[in-house]
Design brief:
243 residues, alpha/beta, Alpha/beta knot, Trp Operon Repressor, Chain A, 2 domains, 7 helices, 10 strands, binds adenine
């Protein structure tokens, strides 16, 4: 009989001491302590071969900064075991933007190997040779991939079975139905003269649901017209079968 091992994130980084960092507290941290997932931070520098343990060098063709060497990163990647079916991500601002659907796929699998870039970049040959999937968490530049890796792992871990427990409200959250989340309220009933919208206190679940849907659509249309278009095109075929 085989007992399947928990979902695991393996991070290749020059700063392993950054981990678990924010992933060691709150929801992800409690789940980590409970053994619902595993985190392994490996030092890329451990694969360095020279006396100075150097991992980077100047860019071929000139230019500023330093480039992570292909041979060092390949050795670090291979030491994890690239033969496995685990996705191999490289955090990079030039990657494909991370989406909730990619997060769902990653959470459903065995867990990714995540390479954190630093310096001006990573030698293209190791990206190609090890089929690293470049992933961005947004159109801005971080000083390294570690903070982006935190984001990827956190987004996955909260979807793992048993992690959210009673807090689970995944289905209603922003992006799970392609819309941003409706506004939330709680006590006190009056805050600086502003009441909770009365409909939310009406006890009429159908009207509450309709109000929330309308609010979510209005918010999405105002802030993220791109998502609105996507949600509309996804909804169309379903409405047909419903009717
Ligand atoms: N490394 C630096 N900037 C990044 C970004 N926006 N996304 C992913 N990795 C990065």
């Amino acid at each position: 009989m085989t007992t399947s091992s928990p979902w695991r994130a393996t991070v290749l980084t020059l700063f392993p001491e950054m981990f678990p960092g924010p992933l060691g507290v709150s929801l992800a941290g409690r789940a980590l302590a409970a053994g619902l997932w595993e985190l392994e931070a490996r030092d890329i520098r451990a694969s360095a071969t020279d006396r100075h343990r150097s991992v980077d060098d100047t860019p071929a063709g000139g230019g500023p900064g330093m480039v992570l060497r292909a041979d060092i990163l390949a050795a670090a990647t291979d030491a994890v075991g690239v033969a496995s079916d685990r996705p191999r991500l490289l955090m990079s601002p030039r990657g494909r933007p991370l989406t909730q659907s990619r997060v769902q796929e990653l959470a459903a699998g065995p867990g990714p190997l995540i390479v954190c870039g630093r310096f001006e970049g990573v030698d293209q040959r190791v990206i190609d040779a090890r089929a690293l999937e470049e992933v961005s968490i947004g159109d801005y530049v971080l000083s390294g991939g570690e903070i982006a890796a935190f984001a990827v792992i956190d987004a996955c871990v909260r979807l793992l079975p048993g992690v959210m427990g009673k807090e689970a409200s995944g289905a209603e959250e922003s992006f799970s139905d392609g819309l941003l989340e409706y506004p939330q309220y709680t006590r006190p009933q009056l805050f600086e003269g502003v009441p909770i919208p009365p409909i939310l206190l009406s006890g009429d679940h159908a009207r509450v649901a309709a109000w929330r849907r309308a609010e979510a659509e209005a918010l999405t249309a105002a802030r993220r017209p791109d998502l609105m278009k996507k949600a509309a095109s996804q909804k169309a075929p379903k409405d047909k079968t419903d009717g």
